[in-house]
Amino acid sequence: MAYDDQNIFARILRGELPAIKVYEDDQVLAFMDIMPQADGHTLVIPKTPAVTLLDLPADAAAYTIQIVQKIAKAMQQALGVDGIVLMQLSGTSAGQTVPHVHFHLIPTSVHQLGKHAAQMGDQDKIKAQAEKIKAAL
Ligand code: AMP
């Protein structure tokens, strides 16, 4: 599938749309999900344009997963959570809604997962969680 550079995450990466960021470097951005499935739901995206994990060059995938681990550790410390669901949907058939590869970090159990990308979260609450995660990084 061709990469659409007008997708929401490409626009966030270019600074055209706002995001509640928790981490950024030259290769990766991590920010809060606006429709969280649990408190602290965070997304980690490589800056490399790729629709799915299968399209992402292996070195970018390897680096992104290192940052996923770093953010997960900070979430554990900052939010006092035990289990974190790491979810990655590749392809619309899998339920992917934003066509820029991303990893979901959801502090919950697989048995508690709610409806996907369904309901806007409380932005002030999300911002407060982001501050806690940032402080733990
Ligand atoms: P997926 O269905 O795996 O592609 O997940 C896309 C995720 O992006 C969903 O969990 C949405 O809630 C989330 N999302 C959509 N738009 C935004 C946005 N502007 N900022 C942050 N998260 C978003």
UniProtKB/TrEMBL annotation:
<dbReference type="InterPro" id="IPR001310">
    <property type="entry name" value="Histidine_triad_HIT"/>
</dbReference>
<dbReference type="InterPro" id="IPR036265">
    <property type="entry name" value="HIT-like_sf"/>
</dbReference>
<dbReference type="GO" id="GO:0003824">
    <property type="term" value="F:catalytic activity"/>
</dbReference>
<feature type="domain" description="HIT">
    <location>
        <begin position="8"/>
        <end position="115"/>
    </location>
</feature>
<protein>
    <submittedName>
        <fullName>HIT domain-containing protein</fullName>
    </submittedName>
</protein>
<dbReference type="GO" id="GO:0009117">
    <property type="term" value="P:nucleotide metabolic process"/>
</dbReference>
<feature type="short sequence motif" description="Histidine triad motif">
    <location>
        <begin position="100"/>
        <end position="104"/>
    </location>
</feature>
<feature type="active site" description="Tele-AMP-histidine intermediate">
    <location>
        <position position="102"/>
    </location>
</feature>
<dbReference type="Pfam" id="PF01230">
    <property type="entry name" value="HIT"/>
</dbReference>
<dbReference type="InterPro" id="IPR011146">
    <property type="entry name" value="HIT-like"/>
</dbReference>
<dbReference type="InterPro" id="IPR039384">
    <property type="entry name" value="HINT"/>
</dbReference>
